[in-house]
Design goal:
The chain has about 425 residues and is mostly helical. It is about 80% helix and about 0% strand. The chain is globular and about 70 Å long.
Length: about 425
């Protein structure tokens, strides 16, 4: 196996230097790939070829559809209905509004699939509401941003589609099923943390539980929750592909938002589509440039070298699994989620499979690690959004989030070392 050490050094060092210099991630990926190609003596036409190949994928078409579905449902007035449903479920508990926030994020995540959208949409409603009821504002913000990561695990999540593509054909339907229990585990761990803090600070309870109110809110929210059923059942049942289900979900969400909930007008639909195009352009540029970067990694045998290096640290699979988590958490502090999935998957997935972690379980582990990265400085996008929505300094939000980091790490370790948490539902359906 011929190893071009100079090309590897140029590719990786130039990439991390540009990241530290705060280059836009797509530029850092593209420019480091260009430098690598020049060192290897390859024509730059190769760059264009692999960029086009990277986005010429039928399964990738699901990403813009899922993003559009999430934006339409988010703009269509669904947030208030899901908050009311969550309140009917858990509002009676100590720290009721914190519990409502966490459960609402689980529901909303199944529609938006985006932690940023969850924080912006639910946070703008729940943070002021919690503050009015006597909750500390920094606590409310911390609950909002950490619970938003549930949306990354609960299907349909476009990040799962991106991972499936980067992993080389992992079943999207199996990934969708694998996310439900880890998402619930994350929600439960955050609820335990919230309960302890609420008990200590004597935060108020909500109204008593009422089955009648719960059934009423389920009826109101049915049309929104049905979108999740259409996507997940359709994909898992083999009725249609992830791309086809995403397209159907867009049409369905348009009908629900405009004609049933009437939370958005046709003029608002065009504005929502404009927002989708802006988001999608960023995602597609990253995917295109990451395809070139990934090809350089593969051609230079970097995944094989990384596998040998990491396994060489220890023969203990638990130590290696912890090392994989640590690598992903560090990457999450300096990079956004999609680039980590696209760049790190070809390198770290062989290591994970070598110690017995299935590609599906590793996908859940990677997504949760990246979700924690969204909450950590210096580039935590969701952390910035939460700070902006609450109008609190980022330092104060980080301090309030520290106990919830612990809750998320506990959930991450359980998902890493207990395969059944991720694999139970896919195995049951299979």
């Amino acid at each position: 196996m011929a190893i071009n050490s100079t090309a590897i050094a140029v590719l990786l060092i130039s990439f991390f230097v540009m990241i530290l210099l705060r280059f836009p991630i797509a530029y850092a990926v593209a420019l480091s790939s260009v430098l690598c190609l020049l060192v290897e003596g390859n024509p730059l036409s190769t760059l264009c070829q692999f960029m086009v190949k990277g986005i010429s994928s039928f399964s990738l078409m699901a990403v813009p559809f899922f993003i559009t579905m999430g934006v339409l449902m988010g703009k269509g007035g669904i947030s208030e209905k899901l908050i009311a449903l969550a309140d009917a479920c858990v509002g009676w508990m100590t720290g009721g509004m914190a519990m409502v926030n966490i459960v609402a994020s689980y529901f909303f995540g199944g529609i938006s699939g985006s932690a940023a959208a969850d924080t912006a949409s639910l946070g703008s409603i729940l943070i002021p509401m919690m503050a009015d009821q006597g909750y500390d504002k920094d606590f409310a913000t911390a609950v909002t941003i950490t619970s938003s990561c549930e949306g990354l695990l609960v299907p349909p999540s476009h990040n799962m589609v991106i991972y499936a593509m980067a992993a080389g054909g992992v079943s999207v339907g199996s990934l969708f099923l694998a996310g439900y229990i880890p998402g619930a585990l994350l929600a439960f761990s955050l609820m335990v943390g919230s309960y302890i803090i609420s008990k200590k600070r004597k935060y108020p309870k909500g109204s008593k539980f009422s089955l009648k109110v719960l059934l009423k809110q389920l009826g109101v929210s049915f049309w929104a929750l049905a979108a999740i059923i259409i996507v997940v059942v359709g994909v898992v049942g083999g009725v249609f592909t992830a791309t086809e289900s995403a397209a159907i979900a867009v049409i369905y969400s348009l009908i629900v938002s405009v004609f049933i909930y009437r939370g958005i007008t046709w003029k608002g639909v065009w504005k929502a589509l404009d927002e989708c195009v802006n988001t999608l352009s960023i995602v597609l540029i990253l995917i295109a440039t990451s395809a070139v970067f990934g090809n350089c990694l593969t051609r230079l045998h970097v995944p094989d070298l990384a596998t040998k290096a990491i396994i060489g640290v220890s023969s203990n699979p638990y130590v290696i699994a912890l090392l994989l988590d640590l690598i992903l958490l560090v990457l999450g502090c300096i990079m956004d989620m999609a680039p980590i999935i696209l760049i790190a998957t070809p390198i770290l997935l062989p290591v994970a499979t070598a110690i017995g972690i299935s590609p599906i379980q590793f996908g859940i582990i990677m997504i949760l690690n990246c979700g924690i990265g969204l909450l950590t400085p210096p580039v935590g996008a969701v952390l910035f959004i939460g700070s902006a929505v609450s109008k609190l300094p980022m330092e104060k939000v980080v301090k309030a989030t520290l106990p919830f980091y612990l809750c998320m790490i506990i959930a991450l370790l359980l998902i890493t070392f207990v395969p059944g948490i991720s694999m139970a539902l896919p195995g049951l359906v299979r």
